[in-house]
Amino acid sequence: MKSPDRMYANILLQVLSIGFLTLYLIMTNQVYPTNTLWFIVAILLGVVGYFRRTDHTLMLTFFVIAVYGSSVVYQLYVRNHIATVGWNELIWLLCFPFFSLIGGINKRGGQSKNKGRSPLANNRKNSESYIDEPFVIEESLDFVNHDLFLKRFEEAIFLGVRNKRKLSLMIVEINQFHEFFKEYGYEQTQLFLNKVAELINDIMPEVEIKAYLEEGQFAMLLSGTERANSSIAELWLDDHFNSMLLTRPRGKGTVTAKLRHSKVDCPPHGMTCYEILEKAQQELKFSDV
Q1: CB-based contacts of 257: which residues, under 8 Å, 6+ apart?
Q2: For 66, which of 51, 186, 216, 284 is 20 to 30 Å away at the CA?
Q3: What average pLDDT does the segment 194-214 reach?
Q4: pLDDT exceeding 70 applies to what percent of the chain?
Q5: Is residue 170 predicted with pLDDT exceeding 70?
Q6: What sign does the dihedral 199-204-207-210 (CA atoms) show?
């Protein structure tokens, strides 16, 4: 999650950059009249960087640099307005990519926040049927949210490397969770999630870091005996999962649903917590038993 201090620092960088470029324009506009045009182009690149994807912005930046370079060559060899390429030309060649990148700096921070979220969850957030009110596991069950889990996960990886402790990430997902929500509604789905969380606590009581991510996904960070017993825990979860009683609008009924599992060992080097979580989400599958 992006901290407010970092966000304010990025905004300050953008404001200062525009301020310095404006000051440079005022100081040099009489000597280089076309600087006004290039100033507008640099600001527009920043705006494009904010609203468009980075690769699109870079392609436009390369085009602008090519146009600017062609104009310099034209002025130098055709019209003979400048004797050599000087510091003014170099400044603009640096300003164009710089402004295109800082324009999207806050947007990229927001994109990094979505790392480790399943593609299915990200797609549903764009759909009209996605629920606006988030699900929250009961506080007494000690399940943290997505962002806090990633923070603690990152700290655990650092400590695990230092203490030479092996870690594994286990994901448990309720299959067809979105369809379940449409059938039962928010209150019953929230109750169901709390019961699943209770079940995980009963079967895996030694897990220190566990979280409800989103879209019916639970995550547990395992070490020691938890890692060795994770396969048995999967079987127990599957065995107990089909006997939960919930109230439909038409009356009570037993919920029949399936779980998908995955477990990924955390390598001591070379992968971040985001990459490990994304890999675990990609490897979700039903139990073989």
Answers
A1: 174, 175, 176, 180, 241, 242
A2: 51
A3: 87
A4: 75
A5: yes
A6: negative
Q: Which residues contact 60 (CB under 8 A, 6 or more apart)?
A: 45, 48, 100
Q: In angstroms, how far is CA 14 from the centroid of its own chain?
A: 23
Angle 9-94-90 from CA coordinates, rounded to 5°: 140
Pairwise CA distance, residues 112 & 3, whole Å = 12
Helix axes 35-51, 87-103, angle to 10 degrees: 20
Given this model, what pLDDT does residue 125 score?
46
Q: Tokens in use for 247?
A: 């109230």
Q: Quick one: tokens of 250? A: 């038409």
Residue by residue, DSSP assigns 139-165 as GGGT-B-HHHHHHHHHHHHHHHHHHT-
Residue type, 181: F
Token pair of 43 as six digits: 């600001």
Phi and psi angles of residue 58, each rounded to the nearest 5 degrees, phi first? -65, -40
Per-residue confidence band for 256, with pLDDT thresholds at 50, 70 and 90:
low
**Dihedral angle, C-alpha 139, 142, 147, 153, nearest 10 °:** 170
**CA-CA-CA-CA torsion sign (85, 91, 93, 94):** positive
Q: In the predicted model, is pLDDT for residue 225 greater than 60?
A: yes
Residue 61 has pLDDT above 80, yes or no: yes
Describe the strand order of the beta sheet including 259-265 as a list of residue ranges. 209-212, 217-223, 167-174, 259-265, 285-286
Q: What confidence tens digit (pLDDT) does each residue in 97-114 have?
A: 888 887 766 554 444 444
Q: At what angle do helices 4-28 and 35-51 cross, to 10 degrees?
A: 160
